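Researcher: Next sequence.
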Amino acid sequence: MEDIDNLLDDTSRSDFYDFVRLLRKNLNQHCQIVTTSRSSYEIRELVTGDVNVKEMDNEACTELMKKQCPTQNDEFLQRLAELCGKIPGKFLAATAANKDW
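Model: Next structure:
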């Protein structure tokens, strides 16, 4: 689940936690759910762990994007990197969505 910050606000958090608990219950506890967020959270009665991923610098962003979008210029790729928050998973999702790149 990508970028779940909006699910962690005070109005949505309870629903999100209930959803995760329901998934775990229905899958007999044999599943792992990976989420990305700029916030840290914990769901009581479930084992959670954190993996901190740093933002990529401009050079690393452009290099990764060029591999995915070799026909695009650096200015376009840098703008796309900014829009993706310099997060690699978002780059891959954004570039995969457009087959013309």
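Model: Residues 13-26 form the longest helix (14 residues). The radius of gyration is 17 Å.
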